[in-house]
Structure to design on (509 residues):
């Protein structure tokens, strides 16, 4: 990449970061509009036992694990 | 989980909003954090002709005021049945020495060799403390321990969350360290050592001496360090999204001490069996994105996970849960999952007799090429007093595939990559 383009690229990157931050800050709702997120079934861990049991099955039977939460160590699974 | 720390505020707001707009039916709010909460489940996992497991799990949560939450979990599982040893099917029956060195088992002609030795019970305990420091910061620390006959795992974890943007955005950083101790039945096999048979020796003492030559004394350890960076963003009144990046570094003993490889000649006829050998370090990356939406009569989520590591295992996972409320107190839920995995670079379904032994090799299908899918149904009944009973039934099928290995001679007559079919049945109760 030539030097001529470097300042241009920097500007583009800076603008992209700035616009994404502005974009993020414009996302979301007011506190009084969060009724749906107070629903029990909307909590990210609303089915934590199921998720925990599933994690254990897939951890034992597949070559990759984790992602949703920390994979950690585990078991001598067969 | 990033949103739970705001439960009490969210609950109050929700109750206020509900009373204002008269919203009812499927919407149940989170109870105030001043009570015990207990979740318990029992699950059966059964593979066709293979592993059968029963797992009981109990989780107790206790809030101390609005700022502190203690979460404790106990899991007990029991496992029996057969597991693929890694050896390939043959035209004649095959006899294998058990991992303990005591006794043998025989697999019929044409059958995939399954080791029926497994019988284990595991107990796992974990506890987590969550503290809301102020309206922006939340922290948590936890401990974990799991013990079974041949395996001990102990871990510590901690996390920090920061809320921004009127609590619409939450950044979370968490880490964990786990120390595992592996003490296999019969000892750890010497990498690539050949399986020995009692019948080839004149006395028990001679056989035992030969068997001991294939084993290392004492246990071994494995260390896992995990770091995860996540962001949860509320998108609008009904939808949120979560994105995580996870880095996991594992070092130490990662062989499966019970897995072997057949050593076959150019006609595909087995000449012997060798114990597997895997690298002693592994660096894993994962990216996980999920979106969840509140619907008028239900809730839905979609997630995608990409995982890659320096063993060259990459995987793609697509998953969704869709819940529909038939009435305010009864729902049905569909669960679909698709998983696709690319084999580890050292995976091979067998060794070729006469070839130089590689540095690492494993015929464990779980690190081979594979696709898998899950289809599940769950029904939930909300009872009086905030109690809930759920029933879940799922079908899970793994379809291992050839990773491009040429299959010699008679091995072409057999299914070297058989499917594994399993049923998951679960009953849960919460109060």
């Amino acid at each position: 990449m030539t030097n001529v383009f470097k300042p241009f690229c920097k500007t583009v990157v800076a603008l992209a970061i700035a616009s994404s931050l502005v974009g993020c800050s414009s996302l979301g709702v007011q506190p009084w509009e969060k009724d749906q997120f107070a629903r029990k079934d909307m909590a990210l861990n609303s089915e934590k036992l199921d998720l925990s049991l599933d994690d254990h099955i897939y951890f034992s039977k597949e070559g990759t694990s984790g992602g949703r939460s920390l994979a950690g160590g585990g078991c001598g699974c067969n | 989980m990033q949103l739970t720390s705001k439960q009490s505020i969210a609950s109050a707001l929700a109750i206020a909003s509900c009373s204002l707009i008269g919203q009812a039916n499927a919407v149940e709010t989170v109870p105030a954090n001043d009570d015990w909460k207990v979740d318990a489940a029992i699950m059966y996992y059964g593979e066709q002709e293979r592993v059968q497991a029963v797992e009981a799990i109990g989780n107790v949560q206790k809030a101390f005021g609005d700022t502190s939450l203690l979460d404790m979990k106990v899991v007990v599982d029991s496992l029996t049945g057969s597991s693929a040893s890694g050896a390939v099917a043959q035209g004649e029956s095959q006899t294998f020495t058990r991992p303990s060195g005591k006794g043998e088992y025989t697999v019929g002609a044409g059958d995939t060799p399954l080791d029926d030795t497994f019988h284990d019970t595991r107990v796992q305990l974990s506890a987590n403390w969550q503290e809301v420091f102020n309206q922006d910061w939340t922290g948590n620390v936890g401990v974990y321990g799991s013990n079974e006959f041949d395996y001990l795992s102990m871990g510590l974890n901690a996390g920090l969350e920061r809320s921004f943007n009127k609590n619409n955005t939450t950044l979370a950083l968490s880490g964990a360290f786990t120390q595992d101790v592996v003490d296999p039945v019969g000892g750890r096999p010497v990498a690539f050592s050949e399986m020995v048979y009692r019948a080839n020796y004149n006395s028990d003492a001679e056989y035992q001496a030969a068997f001991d030559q294939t084993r290392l004394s004492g246990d071994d350890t494995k260390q896992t360090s995990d770091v995860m960076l996540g962001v949860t963003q509320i998108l609008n009144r009904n939808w949120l999204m979560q994105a995580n990046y996870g880095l996991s570094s594992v070092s130490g003993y990662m062989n499966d001490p019970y897995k072997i490889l057949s050593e076959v000649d150019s006609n595909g006829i087995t000449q012997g069996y060798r114990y597997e050998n895997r690298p002693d370090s592994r660096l894993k990356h994962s990216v996980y994105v999920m979106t969840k939406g509140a619907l008028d009569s239900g809730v839905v989520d979609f997630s995608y996970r990409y995982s890659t590591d320096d063993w060259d295992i990459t995987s793609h996972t697509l998953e969704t849960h869709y819940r529909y409320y038939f009435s305010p107190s009864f729902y049905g839920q569909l669960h679909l999952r698709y998983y696709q995995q690319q084999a580890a670079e050292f995976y091979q379904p067998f060794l070729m007799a006469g070839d130089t032994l590689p540095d690492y090799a494993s015929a464990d299908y779980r690190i081979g090429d594979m696709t898998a899918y899950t289809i599940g149904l769950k029904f939930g009944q909300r009872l009086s007093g905030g109690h809930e009973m759920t029933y879940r039934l799922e079908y899970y099928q793994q379809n291992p595939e050839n990773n491009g290995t040429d299959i010699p001679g008679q091995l072409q007559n057999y299914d070297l990559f058989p499917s594994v079919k399993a049923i998951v049945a679960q009953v849960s109760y919460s109060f």
User: Anything to note?
Assistant: The mean pLDDT of chain A is 76. The first helix of chain A runs from residue 5 to 26. The helical segments of chain A are 5-26, 48-61. The two ends of chain A are 52 Å apart (CA to CA).
